[in-house]
Amino acid sequence: MTDINYQTPETHTVDCDILIVGGGFAGCGAAFEARYWGRDLKIVVAEKAAIERSGAVAQGLSAINCYMGMRWNENQPEDFVRYVRNDLMGLSREDLVYDVARHVDSTVHLFEEWGLPIFTDPQTGKYVREGRWQIMIHGESYKPIIAEATRKSASEVHERIMVTHLLKDSKDPNRVAGAVGFNVRDGSFYVFRAKAVIVSAAGASHIYRPRSAGEGSGRTWYPPWASGSAYALLIQMGAEMTQMENRLVVTRFKDGYGPVGAWFLMLKAIATNASGDSYESSRLPELRERVGKYADAKPMPTCLRNHLMLQEILAGRGPILLHTERVLDTPEKEAVGWEDFLNMTIGQAVTWASQGIEPKTTPSELILSEPYVMGSHAVCAGAWTSGPGDVAPEEYRWGYNRMTTVQGLFGAGDTVGGSAHKFSSGSYSEGRLAAKAAVAFLRDHPEPPHVADVDVEALRTKIYAPVRRFAELGPTITAGTVHPDLLYPDQGLNRLEKIMDEYGGGVSANYSTSRNLLERGMGHLAALRTDLEHLGARDLHQLQRSWELDHRVWTADAVLRHTLFREETRWPGYYYRADFPHVDDDRWKCFVNSVYNPTTGEWRLFTRPYRPLF
Amino acid sequence: MPTYVRTDKCKGCMECVKICPSDIMHIDATQGRAYNIEPAMCWECYACVKSCPEAAIEVRGYADFAPLGHSVQPTRTTDKIEWKIRMRNGDLKEFTFPIRTTPWGSIRAPQESPEPPADMAASELLSFEPDYLAVESLPTLPRKTETA
Asked: How far B47 CA lies from chain A's nearest CA (Å)?
């Protein structure tokens, strides 16, 4: 039985100038920058876990994947824009990409000053490059180091707070006024009243059914705690979203999901089919037929490399093997190979140890992951935000940098759409950009937010409903989890993953879907949505899982609607519209955007033009 | 890979409960010791393993693909992390990597720097720029004229 006083939970009201929702890399960058420009401001971070080990970098990283090296004239921001343009099959918000690129070096230099160990060449003094954009780090403590700066910057860091909803200003429905949530440890209710809100929450794992089963379903590529709050919070406020169909599938070591970047780029390992043959070049003619000029983009876009691997596996020539045994010829390289995993995907080291794979002598299998919804890797789902004042085209600019279409509501990291390839350093930089802009917004709009008690009370009732329901209905059965009137959050999650996998282009469908499948999937999702009104939570942990499920369902809903609207296959290897199998630049070289109307419950989908920066 | 907790070592100090990003390390009410309440939501991130002062938490690879008989265990100090890896065939591998180059707590807070001039607020520069870019000025582009 629950020990929560769900009838009258204690309420904490926190008034602040800037509320930062999510203390991952983007949120940490926001706290630091907000304090620099706003010495007198009350800056509050709300975080679901503990910031020393929260977010996508909780485990650490072995590389910083976004660094220009402008001081050594290695790359300029324009070079990065061209790279991202290629990799996203032509579609990114180039003003946002450029903005991250021109600032990211200063972020990395701050990290180095703070104590992050970066591999440096003793001869040249330059950082050691893993690839053109990547530098190598000893990044086990990457997140705790960044968190230290956050603790010194923020006025307050509230941890173990599950933020469930944003608050609207009662006098201006298109302005944000704060957020509500609950403390996962003591069950108390939190009301944050803020003049500006920066959502720097996570993208989403567990939208699609994972390849691994049972216990192994925690071994997702993006962390299991990434529950799509970045999107659910904004969609429900009526913020305009973009590229929600642009989900990510990654090539990884099979089962352990160890990253491949260092192996391909630094150690120069190659991947072959089971017979030892390279397969990418022989498949180029069929690729050109499908995607036209994009087949010859250099480097080959991430999705197309996925596509070629998938075709090779479907042709019966798998498994695909990464030949680690051909490159680990010195103890130093062996240490680099193991450290790559121990710093960021320890589970891959466990996979090698348990399966008896000695990488010096044995190649490893590669596989394509289940899809993820996020905005900071080789995809860019998220909110449609205003761009930087000096370079953004007019259509991409309506005021403050990184502000969404809702007044006072800013985004950073996974939250911001169209802004791909940020990774850790770029997400931190985007948090800084959003925070500086939010401080400027505050100076122009110093009035306190209007929060209606009736709105807060309605949300309080709603948030605790799953524990109330369990207390009332749980005892009507003898024991166990099978109940005619209650759905538990893990059961709802299984349903969501099955719907998305089978109808929305998951692994069991080889990432393929169509109008008919999508429409049927949307029907099943609507039924799941009504079943969320029957969620039961036996404790606070399950209450957290209940609201994470709610956020995932909002995210999935947007994914299906966007995928249905875009009648082409823009990113083969991420997903296929089998009824529109080709890239169609004439009709679809544009953004698919959506707005949910919280009053009517209706979605509106439309296109926005793509404007190249140069 | 899911964590488990050694009964003879755990003192119920709550460090793992405080740090777990997935909220799955909880204290068992009858024993007063920690355990993993939801292995299927464990990312094997090792945050709890690294935080445990008693070295009571270990990891056993996911049952759906990892055969038994292995161990990957770290010891983390203020400036380095040591890994001991026992392969399924008994082979042992050991690696040590640095984690930080400066003392913990030494980061300079942004408010310790002089306040920026008021006119900087409207510029495109972030804090400590352009100095920390290590180039002369922040790059920009001429705005492209809209074309039909």
From this structure: 7
Q: B28 touching A, CB under 8 A?
A: no
For residue B63, list chain A residues with Cβ-Cβ distance below 8 A. 214-216
Report chain A residues whose CB lies below 8 A from the CB of B126: 33, 103, 106, 429, 432-433, 436
pTM strictly above 0.90: yes
The H helix count followed by the E strand count for chain B is 2, 7
- In whole angstroms, what is the distance from residue A504 CA to residue A513 CA? 6
Span A449-466, mean pLDDT? 96
Q: Residue A54: its pLDDT value, please?
A: 98
Active-site residue flag, A75: no
A198-216 average pLDDT score: 96
Q: Where are chain A's structural domains?
A: 251-368, 453-589+600-608
pLDDT at residue A6, rounded to an integer: 64
- The answer to whether B16 and B48 are in contact (CB under 8 A) is yes
Domain boundaries, chain B: 3-98
Q: Do the Cβ atoms of A59 and B43 come within 8 Å?
A: yes
- pLDDT (mean) for A171-196: 97
Cross-chain Cβ contact B62/A215 below 8 Å: yes
**CATH code, residues A251-368:** 3.90.700.10
CATH match for A453-589+600-608 among 3.30.70.2860, 3.30.360.10, 1.20.58.100, 3.30.465.10: 1.20.58.100
Residue B44: which region, alpha, beta or left (left: phi > 0; alpha: psi -120 to 50)?
Answer: left
pLDDT at B142 over 90: no
How near does any CA of chain B get to the CA of A196, in Å? 17
Q: Is-contact A578 A514, C-beta < 8 A?
A: yes
Residue B145 in this model has a pLDDT that exceeds 90 = no
Choose from A219, A497, A543 for mutation: most chain B CBs within 10 A.
A219
A353-369 pLDDT tens trace: 999 999 999 999 999 99
Q: What distance in Å separates the CA atoms of residue A193 and residue A163, rounded to the nearest whole number?
A: 13
Highest CATH level, class, for B3-98: alpha beta
CA closest to A220 among chain B residues: B43
Give ipTM to 2 decimals: 0.97
